[in-house]
Amino acid sequence: MSALGPVMVDVQGTAITAEERQFLAHPLVGGVILFARNFASPRQLRQLTADIRSSRSPSPLIAVDHEGGRVQRFRDGFTVIPAMRRLGLLHEADRDRAREASRATGCIIAHELLAHGLDFSFAPVLDVDFGGSSVIGDRAFSGAPEVIAELAGALAEGMAEAGMASTGKHFPGHGYARADSHIEVPVDPRAFAEIEAADLLPYRRLIPRGLSAVMPAHVVYSQVDRLPAGFSKHWLKDILRGRLGFEGMIFSDDLSMEGASIAGGIADRARAAMDAGCDMVLVCNAPEAARELAGTLEAAPVDAARVEAMRGKRKSDERRYAEAKAVFDAAFA
Prior knowledge:
Layout: E1 7-9, H1 18-24, E2 29-34, H2 42-53, E3 61-64, E4 66-68, E5 71-72, H3 85-93, H4 95-115, E6 120-121, H5 145-162, E7 167-171, E8 187-188, H6 192-198, H7 201-206, E9 213-216, E10 220-221, H8 233-243, E11 249-254, H9 266-276, E12 280-282, H10 287-296, H11 304-310, H12 318-332
Parallel strand pairs: 1-2, 1-12, 2-3, 3-6, 7-9, 8-10, 9-11, 11-12
Antiparallel strand pairs: 4-5
Helix pairs in contact: 3-4, 4-5, 4-12
């Protein structure tokens, strides 16, 4: 059985310190998320991930936000991935080519990250672009839910082909609320029926196809629940688990974001997220808060099957990678 705890943390530099190595072995820690500051070169990144893995047994899950466009943490030695909107625009001109390019993009992202010791990227973004969200914008494939489901599904297929799990975000949808949840508490005033018809469509389509994980939004859907989705039993247990039948991992969004402040201090935020249904909570760019949480939170290990589903498997070979690169280069030349 997995002994990984339910807290995902970060590290400060390009190598882990002795203090960080000791902290990663804490029973409550189960994962590490990497950022651009943790990357200096491909070789250094492979050493860093190897050192993180050796910090405990079983080894922590290692993740990154590596969507493409504005959100790509590693660049030198990695394929530069365009914003997902580029795939949506390609879909307007040639649907089949866009699907093929999306699948190739997923394969490339996964193959390159797995080769450097990571388990998964928090992708794909399933948010619908309604034209008003500054934090989402061109991170969304499209403003059409059906197109998002099609292209995100192809991207996830490419990731799975290479051996990587997929994480849909930000459930049920961050594309309508204008505020940036990194610095404010966004409010989405729409009725549930409107959210269900648009934002939930990609989840309804992709969950039966094997979506591995979901990350809820720090957004209050005021006509549905007074709490942000990531702290809402109604959204996570009744809708995501119950109505949509999702059985995979639920990761909180970063609990150090302002959008999470509605739940109180860091320990209150973590308990609220886990009580609502999150399996693993993220505490990023706040090392003191992460250590405070480790000293106060009481929680069981994460379900072993859900952990295993998120571990990278490295299935693609160099031939398949080269094929994906050829498709990608032709699409974005």
